[in-house]
Automatic annotation (TrEMBL):
Source organism: Rhizophagus clarus
Sequence intervals crossing the membrane: 413-435
Keywords: Kelch repeat, Membrane, Repeat, Signal, Transmembrane, Transmembrane helix
Name of the featured protein: Galactose oxidase
Keyword Transmembrane helix: yes
Listed InterPro entries: Kelch-typ_b-propeller
Classification via Pfam families: Kelch_KLHDC2_KLHL20_DRC7 (PF24681)
Signal peptide: 1-31
Gene3D superfamilies: Kelch-type beta propeller
Length: 610
């Protein structure tokens, strides 16, 4: 029975581990679904909040279709832009926002953790001027605005500073016929009130310009477009119309509400619009990338740097593992030590990735890379907000990718993984306890085999036999156990014979069954009588573990009539009891055995000397 139990235990362990492996394999298969791949879009928004870059809206270049796709990319973990990026689709929660393009966005709100969406162009007349997204609760809502009346506006670049969202220029249908603006609107993202500010010395009306918040709380405005007839070819050269020059830049003082203008020198880029701008990591230079531009008559570049100490333009030294083709109407954010460029028009996604990474940590040489490392150290200079989002500290790899709430499909995936891990842990713990229980039982069996029968002989009386009773034999008449030991004596009867008798046997005890060594301990079974002088017929041996302190050998007459399943059940129940309650008792019994064993040896030696 013990061997059977051990075999079943080992098989159970094997089955548990096989089931665990199968469950993990099942989760892996379920996770191998087709990953979400967003459409290529331009004129979208890109907002960085809590290690995630949120992309919203835009136009599909190949079809000209406006979309309201909403998705994010986690920047708390490393990734390679040449591989499938782990985009998270959030489009199922954005039904209230119609398809649109050319809006602007920023991170703001009372806790500086809310996505603020302003403006945008849509064919749906019900589209509101302001929407807000709560990443913690994954909810969108229309935000009511107080103050001056809002107007529909698009093709502008908002900059946020101290919870104020600065909204300059843009294009609007409310001033016919689709006029450009040069108004400065400021949206308070805590109280959500809107105001209009100074136009004195403001730039000319424009849209699709570059805007960057500087360290001194000033905003730098560069280039743009003020010609509705502007058109360009596949090389991003403007073929008709024009774009604004970059030989001068405009500066808005957010503290004093004052406009100023600076002339630029050096390698001045050609007139352009639809480009991106970010502040360098040292706060002393502005980097621009891409855009549509007027052909200057030479091979123009897509990357320039403006030194803010002298307003001198130069072309930086650039190296890297890949040199991307130019693109326009994209977005750029500073994340860690990288200028992160997302989507846009003018590139082929089969050649260049949707996300470009420019390492700008070394001002002497910028480096195009395909690998994002969130643990890369940053220069010590504190950064202000970028034009499309607030200032970005270096993300840490310790933050969980799932710390921000996800869409329902992602929740199911996370739930499935967590559930499987819990099942795996439960199976591991269960397997460990079963293994521990089995090992402990084997150790107990070894102790029993070594300690139970010192010098005893086990004899089985045959069935249907007669034995004379010359002593004080006892007919048990159905009783199965004869008590052998008394007075702190355990069942370690050295030199005695333990006689086991099967069912329906007739036995006679030739010697008194009392508590003396070198005597015969006999078990009598049900329905036995005393006969005389008949031949002994051998019967099969049955071996017992005699571990019951103070008791004699246990008869097997009842066990013979019990089913093996019942016996196995009793064994398992006994083992469970021992697992949770026997440890202390075992220690006490071991001490008693050692004392009893010494007493028995002393008694035996004294008896032999007498």
């Amino acid at each position: 029975m013990l061997k059977l139990l051990n075999i079943m235990t080992k098989n159970s362990l094997v089955n548990f581990f096989i089931l665990w492996i199968l469950l993990h394999a099942l989760v892996e298969v379920n996770c191998q679904v087709v990953p979400f791949e967003p459409d290529v879009v331009y004129r979208h928004t890109a907002t960085y909040i809590d290690n995630k870059l949120y992309i919203l809206g835009g136009i599909i270049p190949s079809s000209g279709t406006r979309v309201n796709e909403f998705f994010s990319l986690d920047f708390s973990v490393p990734f390679d832009t040449t591989q499938k990026l782990p985009w998270q689709d959030l489009s199922s929660i954005i039904n209230m926002i119609p398809p649109h393009d050319s809006a602007t966005s920023a991170k703001g709100g009372a806790n500086n953790d809310t996505l603020i969406l302003y403006g945008g162009k849509s064919t749906d007349p019900t589209m509101a001027s302001v929407y807000i997204f709560d990443p913690q609760h994954v909810t969108w809502k229309v935000q009511t605005i107080t103050g001056i009346n809002t107007i529909k506006v698009w093709d502008l670049t908002g900059v946020i500073d101290n919870e104020n969202f600065y909204l300059f220029g843009g294009n609007t249908p409310d001033v016919p016929p689709n006029e450009f603006l040069n108004d400065m609107f400021i949206l308070d993202t805590i109280n959500f009130s809107l105001g209009r500010y100074s136009l004195v010395n403001a730039p000319t009306p424009r849209c699709n310009y570059g805007a960057t918040l500087l360290l001194n709380n000033k905003i730098l405005y560069i280039g743009g477009n003020d010609d509705p007839t502007t058109d360009f070819n596949s090389a991003l050269d403007i073929t008709t119309g024009t774009a604004l020059p970059l030989n001068e830049v405009y500066i808005y003082d957010t503290i004093n509400n004052i406009w100023d203008k600076e002339a630029t020198t050096g390698q001045i880029p050609s007139n352009r619009a639809g480009f991106s701008t970010v502040l360098g990591l040292d706060g002393q230079r502005v980097i621009i990338y891409g855009g549509i531009f007027v052909n200057p008559g030479y091979s123009d570049t897509t990357l320039y740097v403006l030194n803010l100490t002298n307003y001198n333009w130069y072309v930086p030294i650039i190296s890297g593992t890949m040199l991307p083709k130019p693109r326009f109407q994209h977005k750029a954010n500073v994340i860690g030590k990288y200028m992160v460029i997302s989507f846009g028009d003018g590139y082929d996604r089969t050649v260049d990735p949707d996300i470009l990474l420019l390492d700008i940590s070394n001002n002497d040489e910028y480096f195009w890379t395909t690998k994002f490392d969130p643990s890369a150290p940053l220069p010590s200079t504190t950064l202000p907000s970028s034009p499309n989002s607030s200032s970005i500290p270096s993300p840490t790899s310790s933050q969980s990718p799932s710390s921000t709430p996800s869409s329902s499909s992602s929740k199911k995936l996370v739930g499935g993984i967590v559930g499987t891990l819990l099942i795996g842990i439960s199976l591991s713990v269960g397997g460990f306890f079963i293994y521990k229980w089995n090992k402990k039982r084997q150790n107990k069996n070894i102790i029993n085999e070594n300690n139970s029968y010192y010098g005893q002989e086990e004899k089985e009386l045959p069935t249907e036999r007669n034995i004379h009773d010359y002593g004080n034999a006892t007919n048990n008449k159905g009783h199965e156990t004869i008590q052998i030991m008394n007075d702190n004596t355990t069942n370690y009867d050295h030199g005695q014979e333990i006689v086991l008798s099967p069912k329906n046997e007739n036995t006679t005890n030739h010697e008194p069954a009392n508590d003396h060594h070198d005597q015969e301990i006999m078990q009598t079974l049900k329905n036995e009588n005393k006969f005389t002088h008949e031949q002994i017929i051998p019967a099969p041996a049955v071996v017992y573990d005699n571990y019951n302190s103070g008791q004699g050998a246990i008869s097997t007459s009842n066990n013979n009539g019990r089913s093996s399943s019942q016996i196995l059940k009793d064994e398992i129940l006994q083992t469970i009891r021992q697992e949770f309650g026997q440890n202390l008792k075992d220690e006490i019994l071991q001490a008693v055995r050692e004392g009893s064993f010494n007493n028995l040896n002393t008694t035996k030696n004294n008896a032999r000397q007498d």
